[in-house]
Each structure stands twice: as structure tokens, then as C-alpha cells.
Prior knowledge:
CATH superfamily of chain A: P-loop containing nucleotide triphosphate hydrolases
CATH architecture of chain A: 3-Layer(aba) Sandwich
Radius of gyration of chain A: 19 Å
Largest interface: B-C, 87 and 85 residues
CATH class of chain A: Alpha Beta
Distance between the termini of chain B: 58 Å
Helix content of chain B: over 70%
Structural class of chain A: alpha/beta
Order of helices and strands of chain A: HEEEHEEHEHHHHEHEHEEHH
Strand content of chain B: under 5%
Number of helices of chain B: 13
Shape of chain B: flat
Number of domains of chain B: 1
CATH architecture of chain B: Orthogonal Bundle
Structural class of chain B: mainly alpha
CATH superfamily of chain B: MetI-like
Helix content of chain A: 25-40%
Number of domains of chain A: 1
CATH topology of chain A: Rossmann fold
Strand content of chain A: 25-35%
CATH class of chain B: Mainly Alpha
Radius of gyration of chain B: 26 Å
Shape of chain A: globular
Oligomer: heterotrimer
Strand order of the largest sheet of chain B: 1-2
Amino acid sequence: xxxxxxxxxxxxxxxxAMNKMEIKDLAVFYGKFRAVTxxxxxxxxxxITAIIGPSGCGKSTLLRSFNRMNDLTPSARVExxxxxxxxxxxxxxxxxVDVRRRIGMVFQRPNPFPKSIYDNVAYGPRLYGVRRKNDLxxxxxxxxxxxxxxxxxxxxxxxxxxSISGGQQQRLCIARALAVEPEVILMDEPASALDxxxxxxxxELMQELKKEYSIVIVTxxxxxxxxxxxxxxxxxxxxxxxxxxxxIEFDDTKAIFTRPKDKRTEDxxxxxxx
Amino acid sequence: xxxxxxPLPQTHWLSRLRRAISHGDLPWKWIIxxxxxxxxxxILAVGEMLWRESAxxxxxxxxGFLTPTLTPDWDPVNDEFxxxxxxxxxxxxxxxxIVLALPISVGIxxxxxELCPPWLRMPLNWLVELLAAIPSVVYGLWxxxxxxxxxxxxxxxxxxxxxxxxxxxxxxxxxxxxxxGASRLAAAFILTIMIIPTITAVTRDVLLxxxxxxxxAALALGxxxxxxxxQVLLPYGLSGILGAIILGLGRALGETMxxxxxxxxxxxxxxxxxxxxxxxxxxIANEFAEAVTKLHTQSLIEIGLVLFVLTLILNMxxxxxxxxxxxxxxxxxxx
Amino acid sequence: xxxxxxAHQTNFQKLIEKNHASVSLRRKVTNxxxxxxxxxxxxxxxxxxxxxxxxxxxxxxxxxxxxxFIHTPRPLGMEGGGVLNAxxxxxxxxxxxxxxxxxxxxxxxxxxANNPNTPLGVVLRFSTDVLSGIPSIVIGLFAYAIIVKPxxxxxxxxxxxxxxxxxLPTIIRTxxxxxxxxxxTLREASLGLGAPEWxxxxxxxxxxxxxxxxxxxxxxxxxxxxETAPLLFTALGNERYDLGLIIQSGIxxxxxFFEILKRVFDQPVDSLPLxxxxxxxQPYPERIEQSWAAALVLMIVILLINIFxxxxxxSRKRRLQG
Lengths: 274, 335, 322
């Protein structure tokens, strides 16, 4: 009995150590409207966690609360706990700026600044006081290499970030996020505005990145979730009442796509749903 | 519908005319085109009139009329005219006003576009626009009796004491400060207040036109709100803000009544900001109705021509700059 | 590669650690300070607004009385007297200027709203902007050259022409905006019934946008009513102007309507801002008192028009959205 308990305990500790983030009882409100409700999720270290579901079910809203981006929407309110390495970041006193450095974000559409490629990547490190040119050069090169963009742009680092193709711009945005060495990367449908070849490149890149980072990706593309992720959260609007989004099933990606427990998940992944 | 029989064949000119009139679209089209062309014609007519009516002044004084000089010559009795003191006065007051108005206006625009709660935005907008609705003469009246004695004179005295003897700067800050406070500095201060609404409105629109994705990109990297505004938004909207500055400059150059009332209207050699002066608009306002000789009238019209050309150029540049910001936005969306 | 990367990762993290306290404090302080500065700038800019309005109400309120509105100026040194001439002048100049400016402005706005991308449409928008940027004193010179000089004397008519040129761009722009708001379906419905374009424009589109257009006209009248520079050498000013007398004597002399009308517009007239300007620069206290009163009247008219039109536009917007 004792033994068993201890086993259990160490198992839990091991599990806790593997969890980069834990989301507990999370709900997001827009004014009085409850957009997302009752979310329980663990984001594991060095894994890719996908959030899938039909459009309008609050996937992006959920993702944006992970790095407190919902603070920017005046009417939005986030309730519940978001633990990063065991520390709740969804409390008033927390240094939001530092949270956002530790949890980077890549958006739906590439949004490079209208500055040079170099300055785009160097923007973050400069914020944190990196001023020496050698340091910056190294960070820029390393980040662009990590984002698999270095070879394509190393000769035109001082051209505008807007002068490269859409797929390259998105990888530039990834490099920009990597430059501040975050621990978690949130990706909000990072390939939805891109062509298939660029999409493939981003997916390959994610497999490389997960060796060093924990990744959460929102996607409406189930095949993409099946291809790239280790864990999948299935979100859907609750049928009754306010119609707010919630996670109806969270499991191993393989399990979600081969033997879903929830009927609605099954309908969705087999295409019987919208 | 009653059918009536045409006494004339359809192709006869009279029936064609009747059709055109009863149908009426052709005349309508030409009328609205004529009205549209009228606007352009008016501008050309203003330019042509100023050019023609200043012919004698231009041929008599040539380019010397406009060139900088240390001993300004404006002598209606002996028909000697030079525009430099007025050009200098206009440039000095307008540029000072821009320098003062820019940080204030950009600050307000940032506050309105990025910081203030949504319910406050509309009332603030109104108030800033009210600042633009106050008539120029009311600014002047308030300036003479309230603003000059309480604000301008003490500030001018302070500037004189601080910079009046500093080598290099003393040219701009020579005293003595007139007792009334009427000076180029007073004009610059009043102009500052008057152009704040212009610069604020354009800058605010420029900021609001910047896609949210730019703000998100910076904030997601851990930038503070100020860093986002200062390092990302302002550079992004820079050309639009330049356009705003130039529009404000255009307004300052042409502002007449308030400036005429507070600048002291004096043609003296001093280049000082603290001394009375004249601007192009205020010399026209003061002397045109009383100008007796032909050359005097023509010289004043030539000053009007300079003012017209300056504002024309500034307007074109400003429109182009504001337009170029609007164009940048879809370029990013294309990706 | 991996070793290299890890080594530098720690470097960067060390750097952030090392800088963290000082850099992050500096960043936070800068953020707080600069954000408050923008709020202070806003307050700073609103100080003159309230100062001016407050002072004009205070001063003007002391000196305003009934005489101010119903008498023409008395010679200096005599008690009483008002600025009836200037009030009448402001009204007839603004009225005539509106009559001159409104028809072409609305027609041009029709062109601009329906053909925004034709070469003439682009030129029209550009020249509207340029026209609104020409200094009003230069417009005054223009009206002097085309009207005062050929006619040989200053007149209210010349002043009205100058005012009309100032009003033109504002009316074109607001009318264009309002015309664009009229739903396309309304136009198509009329055209579909076989009504010609011009009839559709005048009897369907224009009435639908009329309230908005009136707002634009009111705003431009408010702006024009406060202008002084274009009247300096066109309307010039006339202390003995009295509309009532002109009409009475015209009727007594059995003059026709148009003859009387000609006498109304064909002589120099005053306006409130013009009077304010002249009186403010005179050394006589009673004149300065009257210029404060004139400022109060001007401000009330202009503020009322502005507030009224704002409220109206807002309520309409809300209705369209809701």
C-alpha cells in the first residue's frame, strides 16, 4: 500500500516535471459572454500540443490567454489558473512582459515589421538590453538557422522583411519569436495563409523546434494536427445554454484520431461534422 | 401610357434634341462634370491672377524681392519693397509652432488611439476638434488680453535671461521683450494651439490605420506598450505623421488674423524670436486695403503668390505622404 | 551545432538574468512615464480650449445686452450702440455665400461619389484638398482681383464670393461622404423603374442624403462665419450699414425687388469677426468691451452648430449600426 502510494507520488512528480504548462478551470469572457469555459489541459515539455475544432469554438481565444494576449482586448476577462513551471501567470501581479518573453507567439498571418530582416529578428533581444553587434549578429544567425531561413536570406539581411515571400515571412516571424529564447511557442494557425509547400516547410520546422521548445498549435486542419502533434485537444461549442467553447476530449493524438472516446470527436475527425 | 405619334422622323435633329432633354442624362452628366472642373479651374485662376497681378513687382524687383537680407527694405513712400522680413517671420513662427505642437499632438494622438478607454475617445475627439472651430479672431482677442500678459511675457523674459547672452543662440533670443508681449514668440505659441487639432487628427487616423497584427507582434515578444508605440507603430506610420506635420505647417503659414493681432507688426532688422515681427499673411492683412501705389499693391500680391505656391507644394507633399501609408497596409495583407 | 547552440543559449539567458533587474525596471519606468506623458499632453492641449471658452463667456457675458443686437454703432464717446450692422452683414454674407457655393458643390460631390477612380475624380479630390489648403487671405486677394477691382468698389457680394470659395471644399467632401452612404439598392430601384440618372440623383439619392448634407453645409457656414481674412479687402466693413433702412428707403422710392437686392449686396458691409478685429485694436474700453461681446456671440453660434451637428451625426451613426 505504502509502496503503491509512493509509486503514485513519484509518478505524479515525474508527470509534473514533464508538464511545461498546466491549465486549470480556465474560462474567458467577452463582457458578459462566456466565450470559452471549463478548460483543463497540460502542455508537456518538448511536445507539440494541437488544439483543433470547428471555427468559432474559441481555439484562438484559448491560445491567446496562454501568454496573456487577451489583456489587449479591453472587454476580455480570463478566469482560472494558467501555470507555467508551476507558477500561476494569470494573476494581477505577474510581469506580463516577462511572461510573453517566455511564451512566444506566431500569428495566423505573417506580420513582420516594416524593418529589415536583421532588425526584425534583433528586435526582441534589443528589448532585453542586448546591444553589442557581435551578440546580435550571433543571435540573428542562430535564430534564422533554427527557423530554417538562414540559407535563403543570409545575403539580404538588410532588405525589408516585407520583400520576401509569404512563407519566408512566416518563418521570419518564427525566427523573431525564437530570438528571445522562449520556453513555449504558441502558433495560431501558422500555415493557414500559406501555400502547401510553405506549409510543409513550417511543419518540418516544428518537428525540429520541439527538441528544444514546447509547442502549442491551433489549427482547423485535422490532417495537420494528425501529422505534427503529439497531443490533441478537441474543442467544441457546448450544445446547450450559452454556446461557449470547451475542450471535449484531450488525449494522445493517435488516440484522438483512431479511437476517440467522445462521439462528437469521432464525428468531427471522420468528417461527419460540418 | 399614352402613345403619341411623332410628327417628325426619329433621326430628325429636333426629335433627337427633344429626346436628349426629356431623357436628360447627357446634360446632367455635363453639368456635374462642369461643376467638378470648376474646382480645378478656381485653383488655376487663383494662381493665374496672382501671377498676372504681380507682374510689375516681379519685373521691378526680380529675385532680390525674395532673397535673404540683413537690412530689410519696405518703404511704401519710396516704392521700395522686399519680402524677406515677412518670409523670415512666417518661417520662424511656423517652424517654432511645429516644433512645439508636434510632441503635444503626437502625445494626444497616441493617447486617443492607443490608451484611452473607448468611451473617452469620442468626447476627446470633439474637444480637440472644437479647438479647430474657434475663430481665429477670438484666438487673437484672447491672445492680446489674456495669453500674452499671463504666459508669453514671462516665458519670453525667461528665455531672454537664459539664452540672451549665449553665443550663437543670442541671435534668436535678443531682447528687449516688448511690454505687451506682442512678438514672434507670441505668434508661434498661438499657432501651436491652432495647429494641434490638424496634426492630432491626422496622426490619430494614421495610428488607427496600422494593423493590429503589428501591435501583437511586438507585445508577444515582450515589448511594453510604450516600446510597441515608439519602436513599432510610430516608425510604421512615419510617413503619415510627416504628412500631418506638413499639413500643420501649411495651416500655420496661411494663418492670418490671430497672428496679425499678437505678432506686433513691426519691420525691424532683428532676427529675434522675442521681438515683434511680421508674417506674409499679416502684412497683406494690414496693408492691402490701404495700399496706394500700384507697386505696393503688386508687391503684396506677389507675397500672396509666394504663400500660394508654398501651401500648394506643402499640400501636394502631405497628401502624397498620407496616401503612401494607406497604400502600405494592403501590401502587408497580401502576404 | 548543438553544443554551440546550447552554449549561447545560456549566454543569452545569463545576459537576461544579469540585466533583468536594471533593464526591466528601466523599461517599466519608461513605459509608465511615457504613457502618463501622453495623458498630460492631452490635458495640456485642452487647457487653452477651456481657458478661451471660459474667458469669453465671462467677459462677453458682462458686456452683452439688448442694445448690442438692435442698434448700429454710435459715434465714439456716446453711450450704448450695438453691432446690428455686423450681425446683418454676417447673415447676408453667409447666406449669399451658401447660395453661391451649394449648387456647384453638390453637383461636384455627385461626380466624386459616382466616379471616384476616373482621372477627373482623382483630380477633383486632389483639387478639393488643395483648395481647402489655400490660405484664406489669398482667397481674399483673388476675390479682390476678380470683383472689387473691376467693379471699382468694395462690396458684400465680393465678400460672399470669397466665403463661397472657402465653403466649397467642405461641402463637397461632406456631401460626397453622405452620398456614398445612400444604399446602392435605392438607386438601382429608381433606375430600374426607368427613371433617368439625373432624376434618380435629384429625387431619390439627394433626399436620402439630405440631412447629412445639411450638416456639412451648417459646419461650413459655421467655419465661414468666423473667418475674417477674406473679408478684409472685399466686404471691408461699414459702420452705417442698416438692412432695415435700405429696404425701407427702397420701398419709399418705389424700387423693385432686384434694385433693393442690389443695394443690399453692392456696398461694403461689416461682419462680426471683422468688427471684433477692428474694435480689439482700438484704445477705447467700450469698443474692447463690444469685441468681447462679439466674441461671445460668435462662439455661441459656432459651438451650437458644432455640438448640434456632432450629436446629430452620432445618433445617425448609432442608428445605422444598431
